[in-house]
Design a protein that fits this description.
Layout: H1 5-19, E1 21-23, H2 24-31, H3 35-47, E2 52-54, E3 57-59, H4 77-88, E4 96-99, H5 103-118, H6 121-124, E5 127-131, H7 134-141, E6 146-150, E7 154-155, E8 162-163, H8 165-168, E9 176-182, E10 185-187, E11 191-194, H9 197-208, E12 210-216, E13 228-231, E14 238-241, H10 247-255, E15 259-262
Parallel strand pairs: 4-5, 4-9, 5-6, 9-12, 12-14, 14-15
Antiparallel strand pairs: 1-3, 2-3, 7-8, 10-11, 11-13
Helix pairs in contact: 4-5, 5-7
C-alpha cells in the first residue's frame, strides 16, 4: 500500500504503463485506497496529460512512457541510495563537479548537501556543482558550502534538465574535476545512453568539460541501450553501481578498462 500521495501517484502511473489500462476496482485493490480516492488520483494524472481517463478507469497514452521525474516510482530505491552515497564519498572539498538530471543524481545531490553541511573541511573549501538540472540546483542552492553553477537552456518537464544550444554555451569555458552522469543505459564497448537527444548533447558537453567521467547507474541499466548515445564507453573512467549487478556485466566493464565500484 502506498504510504503517501506522491508514492501512490507514482505507483498508479506504473500500473497504467505496465497494464496499458486499469479500472478503479483494480486500483482500489492494488493500492488499498477508496474508489473516490482512486478516481481523484486518476483525474489528477489525466489533467497533466500523463494518462488518458476513461469511464471507470484509465489508459496509457503516448507520453506515459516518459514521465516527469516527480512521478517516477523510486525503483531500486535502496540501491540508488547506496550508489549516491558511494559517489559522494568520491567528492573532495574544493572540487568542481558536474551533475546531470535524473533520480540517481538527484539522490547524490541530497547526500552531497548533507555531507557538505556536516564536514568542516567544506566550510573552508566549498564544492562547486555545475548542473543542467533545475531541481538539483534548487536543492543545493540553500546549502552554505556548495556553490552552484547552472547552465542555460530550455527545461524539459520530464527530467528538469536544461537542453538546447544555450545549455552548452558556457561549458567550454569551465573546467570540471569530475562529471557524475546518470544514464538510462550503459553497454561495455558501446557507450552510455539516454532517451532524449537534447539531454545526450548537454550530458556529452558536461563530460567534455571534465577530467574524469563517473557513471552512476543501478544494475538494471547495465547492458541496456537507449535512443541517444552520450559518449563512447572509452570516455568513462568509473562506474558506480549496486552489488546486485550481473558479475558477467561487471567483468565486461573491467576488461574494457572501466573501474567498477559496487555499492
Amino acid at each position: 500500500m502506498a504510504t503517501n500521495r506522491h508514492d501512490r501517484l507514482s505507483r498508479l502511473v506504473d500500473l497504467v504503463i505496465e497494464r496499458g489500462s486499469v479500472r478503479v476496482e483494480e486500483i482500489q485493490r492494488e493500492l488499498g485506497i477508496s474508489p473516490a480516492t482512486a478516481r481523484r488520483d486518476l483525474d489528477a494524472l489525466a489533467s497533466q496529460q500523463l494518462i488518458t481517463r476513461t469511464r471507470g478507469g484509465a489508459l496509457a497514452n503516448a507520453s506515459s512512457g516518459e514521465l516527469p521525474l516527480r512521478y517516477r516510482a523510486t525503483k531500486q530505491g535502496e540501491q540508488k541510495l547506496r550508489i549516491a552515497q558511494a559517489a559522494v564519498a568520491m567528492v573532495h572539498p574544493g572540487e568542481v563537479i558536474a551533475l546531470n538530471g535524473g533520480t540517481t543524481t538527484t539522490g547524490m545531490a541530497l547526500e552531497l548537501g548533507i555531507r557538505s553541511s556536516s564536514e568542516p573541511a567544506f566550510a573552508d573549501r566549498p564544492v562547486t556543482v555545475v548542473t543542467n538540472a533545475v531541481n538539483i540546483a534548487t536543492d543545493l542552492a540553500v546549502r552554505p558550502h556548495v556553490r552552484v553553477v547552472v547552465t542555460g537552456g530550455v527545461a524539459r518537464a520530464q527530467s528538469y534538465e536544461l537542453v538546447g544550444p544555450l545549455a552548452q554555451l558556457s561549458l567550454p569555458q569551465i573546467s570540471v574535476d569530475t562529471a557524475f552522469l546518470g544514464v538510462h543505459g550503459i553497454v561495455a564497448g558501446k557507450g552510455i545512453f539516454t532517451r532524449h537527444e537534447g539531454e545526450a548533447a548537454i550530458n556529452a558537453a558536461l563530460a567534455r568539460s571534465a577530467r574524469q567521467v563517473v557513471v552512476i547507474a543501478d544494475h538494471s541499466k547495465l547492458g541496456e541501450f537507449a535512443f541517444a548515445r552520450i559518449l563512447d564507453s572509452e570516455g568513462v573512467g568509473v562506474l558506480v553501481t549496486d552489488d546486485e549487478a550481473d558479475p558477467a556485466q561487471v567483468e565486461k566493464f573491467r576488461r574494457a578498462g572501466v573501474k567498477v565500484v559496487l555499492a
